[in-house]
Design brief:
This protein is an alpha/beta fold. The chain is built from 22 helices and 16 strands.
């Protein structure tokens, strides 16, 4: 094999030498012809160029075998280049020699004999055509521009074709590079249009799909439904369990949707805990709502993450093309408005958009801005309602109730803006402010009256779900100097039961420091006495609804009596809320209720009125 390769190289060398001799002979003939026709300067340039040209050819041929530094041939190559340019000024047709020189330089730089072959061959061809054209035309050499330019173009084009044809590796690299470029472009496009966590289409891709779907529906006069889904209080999962668990939860939630929903529903993740769905060309309203309900049902399935079963609560809003809008942005916005309304109505539900929702949303946004401004300007205030020990008639303590007087002079009911504060997350900062102010008031009253008045403060769901809730409460108590035993935190029955697993440790930490926990509005929620023993509580507050008809309803009286008897038996205190008249008070005294709160004794009042300066109620 080596012998055959050696013989092949020797044959190629012979061919190259013959081409070299032919080309050099023709080149000398052309220069001689020009030498006889032209003046002395051209003659000198022709002689000098012949020397440089011969050196370049010989150097380029032997360069690959000698493996010398390419700088050895740099000077003659430059010399040949400069002299050829000078000759081109006098004889434009000599540009063909410049072309052959260019090919030889390529041969030297890239160490490719194939380029040298084509350079020698085309130079010889150019010389023959040059001599032939000189015989058939009467034009002087200085006017034969076309020949030189044509030969330059022909030689360069053929040289490139020859290189590409013979260099399969080069072609492979070109196509590999093109393939790699296309692959990278596809990867970039995938990253730009796909959510990295769930592998669902992202907002960009969703908007593009929705825009194309709207065009399809316009063409066939069909209908289209857009659904926006938001996971309720997902931030709490991130804060309490960590962002890693939160990401796994979203990933499992997305997979659950993909597996359970029909293929005709387009699913995408808009960002965070927000998803969107597109349903094209449904039959009728009933068909659309059936598909929407299937999305809601799929979202209700618990997700197993890190050994923990998590059931997400979702809110969804629906907008319809063309009824609720013709544009992508309009449909998404209206679906989002309906979703927010569903969240305000009680969470874990879905609603179809209507025009009234948008007006209500604008009013809601205005109220939110006013609320933020009121908090910044300290326009909020606390009113205090007395809690009375019935047998003695003495004030046992107070419940701090938040009030907001609008700059226009009217009081805004808490039911109008407390849910908004919880929804927007402002309730956490407001709750800290209420707790701090209530503790300061209780400390001041205790120091002034030398009496152990308790202070009850309501805690919202969002506050309790904060991972540092216990630390914040204890820090405020220490900051204000209030005895922890005088502070009572009131939480609703529903809140305590739903968050018992995640908040039980925090509540026990607070109780260990002396702060007591009250179960507020007992009877409104699950209304099961079996829960009382499981909850970390010290006080039970009976909801006002049980007292509204206690004078006339034997059932209500029996229920209240049972609650009081059971709670006192397990060494807890009972407070009856909403006592408004003498008859209600009398019945509560008969069945053994020791603590009451309501309008019969006192309405919620500002600080300077609520504290009478003594411990008894007249």
């Amino acid at each position: 094999m080596n012998i055959l390769l050696k013989e092949s190289r020797q044959q190629k060398n012979v061919i190259v030498l013959r081409l070299l001799l032919l080309n050099f002979s023709l080149f000398i003939a052309v220069l001689t012809y020009a030498f006889l026709k032209m003046g002395l300067p051209v003659k000198a340039f022709c002689c000098l160029n012949a020397i440089f040209f011969l050196y370049v050819f010989v150097y380029a041929f032997f360069y690959r075998q000698r493996k010398d530094s390419p700088w050895i041939g740099f000077i003659p190559i430059v010399g040949h280049f400069i002299v050829t340019l000078m000759l081109m000024y006098f004889i434009p047709a000599v540009s063909n020699f410049f072309s052959s020189m260019y090919l030889i330089v390529l041969a030297a730089v890239f160490m490719r004999k194939e380029i040298l072959y084509i350079g020698l061959l085309l130079s010889a061809l150019a010389d023959i055509l040059f001599i032939y054209s000189s015989k058939v035309t009467s034009l002087p050499l200085t006017q034969q521009v076309t020949i030189g330019v044509s030969m330059w173009s022909i030689m360069m084009a053929l040289a490139l074709l020859f290189i590409i044809y013979n260099d399969k590796k080069l072609m492979g690299r070109v196509f590999a590079l093109q393939k790699e470029t296309i692959k990278k472009a596809e990867q970039i496009n995938h990253l730009a249009t796909t959510d990295s966590l769930t592998s669902l289409p992202n907002r960009i891709s969703s908007c593009e799909y929705l825009e194309a779907a709207l065009l399809r529906m316009y063409a066939i006069k069909g209908q289209l439904g857009v659904i926006v889904l938001d996971v309720d209080h997902f931030q709490v999962i991130n804060d309490s369990l960590g962002h890693s668990i939160g990401d796994q939860c979203l990933e499992g939630f997305a997979k659950q949707l993909i597996d359970k929903l029909p293929k005709r529903i387009y699913i995408s993740r808009l960002g965070g805990d927000e998803f969107s769905f597109v349903i094209e060309n449904y039959k009728d309203h009933e068909d659309l709502m059936m598909l929407v309900h299937s999305i809601w049902e799929a979202a209700q399935t618990p997700i197993a993450v890190a050994g923990v079963s998590i059931q997400l609560k979702v809110n969804m809003g629906i907008a319809i093309y063309p009824e609720h809008g013709y544009l992508v942005e309009m449909l998404l916005m209206n679906a989002n408005v309906a979703m927010q309304r569903a969240r305000s109505n009680g969470k874990n539900s879905y609603l179809l958009f209507d025009g009234q929702m948008k007006l209500e949303l604008l009013e809601k946004r205005k109220l939110e801005e006013d609320m933020k401004e009121a908090f910044a300007n300290e326009d909020f205030d606390l009113h205090y309602q007395q809690q009375v020990h019935v047998p003695s008639g003495s004030v046992k303590g107070y419940e701090a109730l938040l009030r907001w007087e609008h700059p226009c002079g009217t009081f805004i009911p808490p039911s109008d803006w407390i849910p908004l504060a919880e929804e927007t997350g402002h309730i956490v900062a407001i709750g800290d402010w209420v707790l701090r102010k209530a503790c300061l008031t209780a400390k001041r009253w205790h120091d002034d009256a030398r009496n152990a008045f308790t202070m009850s403060v309501n805690i919202s769901a969002l506050q309790l779900m904060q991972p540092d809730f216990a630390d914040r409460v204890l820090a405020i108590v220490a900051e204000t100097g209030l005895n922890p035993c005088l502070l009572i935190l009131e939480l609703t029955e529903t809140l305590l039961i739903q968050s018992m697993e995640t908040s039980k440790n925090q509540l026990n930490q607070i109780r260990e420091r002396g702060v007591r926990i009250a179960l507020d509005d007992f009877g409104k929620g699950f209304s099961s006495l079996s829960y009382i023993k499981q909850l970390p509580i010290d006080i039970v507050k009976i909801d006002k609804s049980f007292l509204d008809h206690i004078e006339h309803s034997l059932v209500d009286r029996a229920v209240v009596e049972s609650i009081i008897s059971l709670v006192q038996r397990i060494d807890m205190e009972v407070v009856a809320e909403g006592v408004e008249d003498q008859e209600q008070l009398r019945i509560l005294q008969e069945i053994g209720c020791h603590y009451v709160q309501g309008y019969y004794y006192s309405r919620p009042q500002p600080e300077h009125i609520a504290f009478p300066g003594n411990a008894f109620v007249s």
